Structures are given as structure tokens and as C-alpha cells.
Amino acid sequence: MATLEAYLTAGAEGDLISWQVQKSAMELFGCSCARVEEAILTLGLLPARYQRNRQTISIAGQLKLFRSRVTVIGCGGLGGYIIEQLARLGVGELVVVDPDVFEEHNLNRQILSSLDNLGKSKVAAAVERVGAINPAVTVTPFEMAFCTANGPELLAGTRLVVDALDNIPTRLDLAEVCAGLDLPLVHGAIGGWSGHVTTQFPGEKSVEDIYCNWIYGKGMEQQQGNPAFTPAVIASLQVAEACKILLGEPDLLRKRMLTIDLQAMAFNELHF
Amino acid sequence: MNITVKLFATFQKGRFVIEQREYPSGTLVGSIISELQIPEESLGIVMINHRHVKLDRELSEGDTLAIFPLVGGG
After folding, report:
1. How many CB atoms lie within 10 A of CB A130?
2. Partner of B22 at 20 to 30 A CA spacing, among A81, A82, A214, B37?
3. Do A53 and A72 share a domain, yes or no?
4. Considering only CB atoms, which chain B residues are within 8 Å of A261?
């Protein structure tokens, strides 16, 4: 029997491998979707699902994304969109962390929620959703709240962390744990029509600065709630930052923050 | 001294969006926030001329002060 690599090379159309060929290879060679995807990209070929990525992300870049592990803390409004986009982008390993189950009030914005999974675990929904979109992506769920005690275990081996939390004290803890572990952190937060995004690298303290006036409680989200579009916008900006970090692209939101007011349609930049 | 004060999102309600205001020299950021009756617990980031500052920062003639509500949801 031919090797997996020979099978894939023979099955390529140009440099694209269709899902059908990828699936047959899994069955014929008894290997996982992830193993086949890595073989395809290592051969300099491209799974056909990524063909619209290719003017933006090279095959070498796609392999880099595939070999990356990203941890998403929070699987709610922001986290759902972040996980969705990282999976479609082709990031190979996702670690997802959230202690909660879906409730009815999540349905207005949380893309992972549905009538069928009310009362069910958010991380379990993330595993299911990613499996349905892109089975080459490995998802490791942790149904627990992030804290400074479990942080090092949850973040072990990760390349970067995305903050999709819903409360300020845990955001501050996460920023501190990431700093201690020398991990880049993409921070995003929302409230009503507004949100903000920044990227914090080790040695920087942007998140601490953002919340230097915080005394207690929640922000604007307490009174304003969170409509459908705000998490989608902020999450997308966070994923663009994460993608750039993984690919080693310049012009990150380091030492600066973008604040977005969708009611005024005003974007402002703040420098730390 | 002349200071441009810009308020964002919910802070605009019952106040203003942008105003030129007069303050005595040596005025601190925190005093302007108190004068505008912005509750401390709802205060997010504050910047002067697009740079992050703390409440004990002294303003200078011609500064633009921008005040944002706290945002922490996800």
C-alpha cells in the first residue's frame, strides 16, 4: 500500500486536497483528521477548505496555525465567536475554559447557544461545534472557572491566551498569570454598544492599566446588557490579533488599545 | 486653562459629548471627574491626548481629556 503522503500527493488537484480525499485518507490509513491535515500541509499542499485563506495566509502560515495551541478563557458572547473563528482559521489545538451552562438569556448573542442545548455545558457545546466545522482541530474542554490556582495547568503548552471572560477581577488574575508564564494575552471586553481590545505581551501591564480605576462590580454591561453585534465585533478583532501573533505579523495592538462605540460608530485609539 | 473634555457612551447622557471648559491651573483629572458627577465605580479608562492617565494626573493648557465608562463584560 502507498504511504499516506503518496496517497495525498496523488489525490491533489493542483495543490488542493478535497475533504473527500482527506476523509478517505483517514479511513484508508486509520489516522486522525489532524494527522492527515498535518501531512497535507507538510507536503506543501492545502486542504481545500482553506483555499479562500490563501491570499492572506500562506501554506507555511497555515501549517504554523495548525501547529499552534490557543487557550480561550470564557465560552460565552466573546468566546463563542472566538472559538468559531479560530476553528475556521485552522488553529490546530484549542483549549476552552468555562464553568457555565447555557441559559435562555444567552440566546440573544452567544453563538454556541441554541434552544437544544439550554442547560448544557458551554465547553461541551464548543467541542461539538468545532467538530462539526473542522474536525482537524483538537479541542480540550475544561468545565471550570479560571483562577490563579488552576491557571498554570490550564495554560500549559499554549502559545497565546484569549481573554473572553465576563468579570473584571478574573480578567486581572488572568493577566497576572499570563505575565508570570510569559504568555501573550489578547484582551477584549464589551458592555452595551461599546467594547475594547488590546494585546498584552510579557512585561507589559495594559490590562492592569485599563482597570486601574476599578473598585468593585461590573461595568456598563450591568445596565446596558450585551446585544448580538457587540461581542461579534470585539471577538473578530481579538481573533485577528491572535492570528497575527501566531503568524509573527507586525502591527499588533501592543501598548495601545482600540475602543469601539457602535452607537456613535466611533473607533478611538488609546496609548499606554 | 482651557481643556477639551470628551465623554463616551453612557457618560454622555445628561451631560455632553464634547465641551471646551475652563479650569484653574493645577486641576487634577480626578477633580474634573468628580465635578461631572461621574460615579467612581462606573469609571473606566481616562486619557489625555490619547494617552492613558491616572486620576492624580495634573492637566495642562490645551489638553484633551477623554473619559470612558467601565466595560468588563464578555
Report:
1. 23
2. A214
3. no
4. 8-9
Give the domain range for residue A44: 30-59
| Domain-located, residue B32 | yes
Q: What is the ipTM of this complex?
A: 0.94
Q: What is the pLDDT along chain B (74 residues), one digit of tens a residue?
A: 999 999 999 999 999 999 999 999 999 999 999 999 999 999 999 999 999 999 999 999 999 999 999 999 99
Looking at the fold, whether A74 and A48 belong to one and the same domain comes out as: no
Q: At A37, which amino acid appears?
A: E
| CATH code of the domain in which A184 resides | 3.40.50.720
Provide the shortest C-alpha distance from residue B9 to chain A (in Å).
7
Of A189, A212, A263, the CB nearest to B71: A189
Q: What is the mean pLDDT of each run of 10 residues along chain A (272 residues)?
A: 92 98 98 98 98 94 98 98 98 98 98 98 98 98 98 98 98 98 98 97 97 93 93 98 98 98 95 96
Q: Which residue of A has its CA nearest to B33?
A: A213
The mean pLDDT of chain A is: 97
Put simply, the answer to whether B69 touches A220 (Cβ < 8 Å) is yes
Q: Tell me: do A220 and A168 sit in the same domain.
A: yes
Determine the longest span between alpha carbons in chain B, in angstroms: 40
Instruction: Tell me how far CA of residue A202 lies from CA of A94, A160, A178, A228, A250, in angstroms.
Output: 21, 11, 7, 32, 16
In this structure, are A110 and A224 located in the same domain? yes
- Reported as a single tens digit per residue, the pLDDT across A62-95 is 999 999 999 999 999 999 999 999 999 999 999 9
Interface A:B, Cβ pairs < 8 A = 112
As for how many domains chain B has, the answer is: 1
In-domain check, residue A149: yes
Residue range(s) defining the domain that contains residue B36: 2-69
Give the span between the Cα atoms of B48 and B41, in whole angstroms: 20
Residues A121 and A210 in one domain: yes
Q: The whole model's pTM is what?
A: 0.97
Give the Cα-Cα-Cα angle B13, B15, B17 (nearest 5 degrees).
Answer: 85
